[in-house]
Amino acid sequence: MKILFSTDQTYLHGGIEKIMAAKANYLADLQGYEVHILTTEQKGNAPCYQLSPKISQTDLAVNYHRQKSYFHPSNFVKIPGHFGKLSNAIKSIRPDIIIVCNYAFDFYRMPFIFKNIPKLKEYHSSGIVDAQAEANSGLLKRMIFSLNEFIASKYDRLVLLNPDEKSYYASNNTVIIPNFVDVPDFRADLNAKKAIAAGRIAPVKGFENLIGAWKLVAAKHPDWQVHIYGQGEESYIGSLRNLIEDFGLEKNVFILPATNKLVEKMSEYSMCVMSSQTECFPMVLLESLSVGLPIVSFDCETGPRNIITNNEDGLLAKNQNVEDLAAKIITLIDDVSLRKTMGSHAKTNVSRFSKSNVMAKWLDLFNELKSQN
């Protein structure tokens, strides 16, 4: 069976890129499967996450201006060339299943070409983001949201990461398949006086709230640190560094470059902290559980509560409540026994997100769709 993943690129650090590479590698090693990845703007870069040599990657070199909206005129003029290259590539590959992983113009075109090929759209961010944006938008943007909903209804399946997300989609073509994580043999020893946070450094990740919480933590535990791993816009990173200085936390809060060895790094810490405004199914939380690292996270919509078993392998703080986030972090600092008990539960509980369990759902879905066409 030929599987085609369609995305923008594979060279940046990120949860979408990481889980797509993991799924593609798994499928490429299965007998009878052939895997292709189609990108729009690889720009000659090597993939961030290692891909099997059995996988074929093709770049269409559309190269949209990513600092501008896809609907900006400078990007709009690229659409005809993009769609032509897309059709030619699909004709050449002749896939049995197409999976659209990102949010580029592929999304709008794919359901209406090669209708004999089943098409899946993956959603990696929470539907609450669009729901909130639509509620506060003008007529033009509301029309775009309506168009997106119409296009989504034309896919054979919308793959959502957790059951809470179904409420944001009107169509009945949804299926729930979570992300998976490889579970390493090693585990965090949970004795280091430091916590880890990681992700794309962008406002939606709420790192300013993490810094605010750590001001309260440092007042009680000045010897504890939090290390934030990630990449993002320099202007936003600069504002976070200024906040760290304003709070006098230069010896407590550190912003470090993104790493593709994050799981190994996690074993050096005593807890993972998440301060996001929204999360659908964050890989960083799965990876934390996989090394036995207890988690403290805002109970934001909708991902953390579908990964963390509250009071068992982590603690959910009131959403966007900085004081409660700090209090829960301090709870794990003060109670070493609780920290280690939660770490042990984390290592056990992550098994429900094992590669074999999750990929079995994907294979069942592929076979179901193939049998219908």
CATH topology of the largest domain: Rossmann fold
**Helix/strand/pairing class, anyone?**
alpha/beta
Write down how many β-strands occur, each being a DSSP E stretch of 2 or more residues.
Answer: 15
Considering DSSP H and I runs of 4 or more, what fraction of the residues is helical? 25-40%
Beta percentage is: 15-25%
Shape descriptor? globular
Please state the second-level CATH architecture of the largest domain: 3-Layer(aba) Sandwich
Report the major sheet. 7 strands, parallel
Low-confidence stretches: none
Number of domains: 2
| CATH class bucket of the largest domain | Alpha Beta
Defining key terms:
Rossmann fold; 13 helices; 16% strand; seven-stranded parallel β-sheet; alpha/beta; 2 domains; three-stranded parallel β-sheet; 373 residues; globular
What does this structure look like?
The chain is of the alpha/beta class. It has helices at residues 15-28, 73-76, 79-93, 106-109, 127-135, 139-153, 207-220, 234-246, 262-266, 283-290, 322-334, 336-349, 355-372, and strands spanning 2-7, 34-39, 56-59, 97-100, 119-122, 157-160, 174-176, 194-198, 225-229, 253-256, 272-274, 278-279, 295-298, 301-302, 314-317. It folds into two domains: 2-180 and 354-372, Glycogen Phosphorylase B (Rossmann fold, 3-Layer(aba) Sandwich); 194-352, Rossmann fold (3-Layer(aba) Sandwich), CATH 3.40.50. The protein is built from 13 helices and 15 strands. Helix 7 links the parallel strand 8 and strand 9 (225-229). Helix 7 packs across helix 11. It is globular, with a radius of gyration of 21 Å. The mean pLDDT is 94.
